[in-house]
Specification:
- The chain is 59% helix and 0% strand.
- It is an all-alpha fold.
- Helix 2 packs antiparallel against helix 4 and helix 5 packs across helix 9.
- The radius of gyration is 22 Å and the shape is globular.
Length: 212
Amino acid sequence: MNTLLSLLSARANWAGVVAIALTLAGSHALAEGRGAQIFQSQCASCHGNEGIALKTPILHGQEPAYIVRSLMAFKHGGRIDQIMMSMNGIASGLTEEDIGSVARYLAGQDPCDIDIKIDYGREGFREAFSAGREKYASSNCGHCHESFHHFAPRIIGQKASYLKLALSQFQAGVRVAPMMPRMLQSWTEEDFENVVTYISGMRLMRACDSEY
């Protein structure tokens, strides 16, 4: 009898665990669906393939906490959109739950879905790429951008046009972030061009054109 009761109890506990897991999975799926809906209706025209020609960042595969932090800053006026002048208005209409849903959705998207072309055959590309790699390493950019220190975003494979704009804004003090203005003070125009070539060119390291 005791063995039977133990088995029944174990099955009941397992059923409870399964029920909780299914509930959480369902909630996550709903959040993902909501995030996808918001992105497609309010974000894709600038941050998806429709906005390739714009100086807007790729957000696919971005750190969710960075997305949340950025949208909250836009929402509450701590950061002003200097590119399309629309992010503050868009973010103000999102709830915190909406923002979390969008962040989780984007974190799970493949950056390869954004159709960026890198002209690696152009004259001077390899030299600029190599010089940019050295400057990126000597400036210790990876300390923040590869470890998410100080909520720094992932930037490897980012659009060149956006990188150029963002770096110029940090250098001019239009945007503020720990260490960025001080580090960029010593950079030459050639350094900027080389580092942008390296960071954006690193997209070539991904198997975006491969079938897997």
